[in-house]
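Q: Hi! First time asking for a complex rather than a single chain. Here are the components, and I think there are two in total. Is that enough to go on?
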Amino acid sequence: MTLQNKQILLAARPTGFPKGSDFRLVTTPVRPLEEGEVLVKAIYLSVDPYMRGRMSEEESYAAPVALGAVMTGAAVGVVLDSKDINYPCGTYLAGEFGWQEYFIGKAASLRLVDPDLAPLSTALGVLGMTGLTAYFGLLEIGELKHGESVVISGAAGAVGSIAGQIAKLYHCSVVGIAGTEDKLAYITEELGFDAAFNYKTTRDYSAKLKELCPKGIDVYFDNVGGAITDAAIPLLNLHGRVPVCGQISQYNLEEPELGPRWLHHLIIKRAKVQGFLVRDFAAKFPKALQQLGQWYGEGKLKFPEQIAEGGIEAAPAAFIGMLHGENLGKQLVRIAPELPSPALMQ
Amino acid sequence: MTLQNKQILLAARPTGFPKGSDFRLVTTPVRPLEEGEVLVKAIYLSVDPYMRGRMSEEESYAAPVALGAVMTGAAVGVVLDSKDINYPCGTYLAGEFGWQEYFIGKAASLRLVDPDLAPLSTALGVLGMTGLTAYFGLLEIGELKHGESVVISGAAGAVGSIAGQIAKLYHCSVVGIAGTEDKLAYITEELGFDAAFNYKTTRDYSAKLKELCPKGIDVYFDNVGGAITDAAIPLLNLHGRVPVCGQISQYNLEEPELGPRWLHHLIIKRAKVQGFLVRDFAAKFPKALQQLGQWYGEGKLKFPEQIAEGGIEAAPAAFIGMLHGENLGKQLVRIAPELPSPALMQ
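A: Yes, that's all I need. Here is the structure of the assembled complex.
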């Protein structure tokens, strides 16, 4: 019996927020393995803001997903069949599987995961690209120093929630910005943020930031862009830094938004605004993962996650909900149960 | 006979472009020197875009000039009287004299100038803050590398004209942007820029930059801000850099201008936008001046300057003209003849 692979394809390029009809579910037979390939069964799929960019035609740092192609995305799973002696059946791997139940390809492009060290889902989160993004954004691009004043937008999201905790480990004063009262409570009460405010119910971001950051802002970790960023930049301290991690407020706009010009503030404050992608730091991943793993093991990094049930079919709705800010922390989709039964192992 | 000092005071805070009535000429008697002070007779005064900021009430990196106070500004001059044995009469000094004929104060805040090494006016230009601003902006903030693609706005101005020549010394491809055909001819034919365009007669800055920078932009040296900057940022190459030196297009606006948001481009390109002030590099001035002096001595750095005649009374018009782009290179005002007669030495 040939194994059937459910896949989510990009059916249409969205205008504004993506909708269900922009995706299409198909079932295709799994092809036989070639020499050196592995067959990996996905267990968790990660849905992230950057994927919105890949759905657009415009060239970005990566090519857009072609219409009719499998949506791009990272997942963690287990090897079901292998023609690579280095990756036998039962090996856990994480990497760019795409939105599908089974991945076939070379294991060299994937990353080994030890399921005994930490829960499997952390390979997509605190001990994966999410944690690394927060780590390098804050420490390398943000040049974070002990005791500084830090503001994080998208603070209850996957990256923001970890960035805030790392800043607290550096004894910083940390203000988070999020969009629901539950998120504010979570990041202040559970994650240790010093203060937080709700961008949906706060009228004057500038006044609120001034109130919560009486000493100004040394590092503004930008996940969202737009009006929140406009308010944060003029409050930067001398030699302030703005790691630009994401611009989720802008991804679903049908028309580009205008905003106030603020480059003169960068001169006055001799401040730096710098975009980054975590993959540029690949050479430093092992050391960073060691540090993140240590913090995680010591219980110093909590990792909120939300897992959508329902298999690969649930991915589009989970993704769209995440873009609307419905997630607290990392948004995952459970593609298969964590412990596959022997029957599933074929 | 008491020496009389003509001074230009800030009479009113300008709305939009400054006008003559925003300044007031007064004559005050020069007070006697105290121990440790020098009396310096100004020879050249420098008028620069940053002074527009000091005329506004808004706090910037330096306090605003108070209404009724002497306008701030750098000059070079000669010691006429001294109660500091380290700075005898005849010593040449440069520094923050203000817009006046005579400066009285401690010499320690000023910089010694050797009039035999280079023309006196270069102490305010290529071998002074102007040259240092171009040098540190391009090499430290801009992290310029040999052979890169460089775009310079305000290219025929004091800083821009030197920045472009330094980039050429680094074998870069250099495109300048300026506002008259004479300026374009000067920077391409005299200063060696590879190409240039007129922002007043070019409709589509983005198309023009694409045409002149077929390999994209590695460093955009920003003196002007506004629509030129909007066009340059999306054309940055991977790991592009934007040293923000000035924003002259914005200084005289009566209402803040809106512009397209472009932070997503910084993520895509992992690019950096960083403001700076030359004074932050003070510890490195001696080494930089040595390099600039060497290039200048070898004839590798031309230093265009325009000298307004008419004494201190001519400063407001020269300043306003500079803000309107009437200058080619450095705009100076001759406050007194270069070789004071013995009679003037009292």
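A: The interface with chain B takes residues 60-61, 222, 225-226, 229, 244-247, 250, 256-261, 263-277, 280 of chain A (CB under 8 Å). Let me know if you'd like any chain examined more closely.
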